[in-house]
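Troubleshooting entry. The earlier prediction with coenzyme A gave an output that would not parse, so I re-checked the input for stray whitespace and re-submitted. Clean input:
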Amino acid sequence: MIQGKWFAPGDDISPLISVRESVFSRGADDLDPLSWNALIYEDGIPCAAGRIWYRDGAYWLGDIGVLENRRGRKLGDLTLRLLLYKAQSHAAPEVHLLCPTGSEGFFSRLGFRACSASPEGTEMMLPGDQIDLDTCKGCPKTNCPGRK
Ligand SMILES: CC(C)(COP(=O)(O)OP(=O)(O)OC[C@H]1O[C@@H](n2cnc3c(N)ncnc32)[C@H](O)[C@@H]1OP(=O)(O)O)[C@@H](O)C(=O)NCCC(=O)NCCS
């Protein structure tokens, strides 16, 4: 069973540190007390995580990572959608992120566009009014129970 959990700014985020350490070789930092952290469990095991924070008039996403042996099964997509849902519910004017070169396609699927590149990676941006979490978009099925 897949479950998602939010950690509000200031919460104890120790349940998600194993994911961050495994994917990014980093632990908790000064940004965590300012961030909402999302954690995805599969059968009770922490498998994917990411965070969102507000800075200078925009929301930023970061540290979106899935354990290597759990990739390719939409857990990253679920994490990104949870973070975008949070941005949307906070009426974010813009959502930004910095991603490693080569991973832009994962974010452009949900509307992010590259706005600059540097040795640290590619900065991407999505206007808040263009956040679209419709998972049925582009799907040709017409008899799916999820489709209204
Ligand atoms: C990037 C990452 C989060 C993707 O997680 P994942 O669970 O393997 O991805 P998903 O199964 O949810 O993939 C969803 C879709 O994105 C695509 N996708 C996944 N990784 C991609 C990448 N690096 N580039 C382009 N597209 C990608 C998949 O093919 C899939 O496409 P589909 O919907 O057409 O089938 C994961 O590979 C990861 O943790 N990477 C290391 C950390 C990292 O680079 N994080 C991103 C920046 S913080």
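This one parsed fine. Residues 2-93 form a domain with the Aminopeptidase fold (CATH 3.40.630.30).
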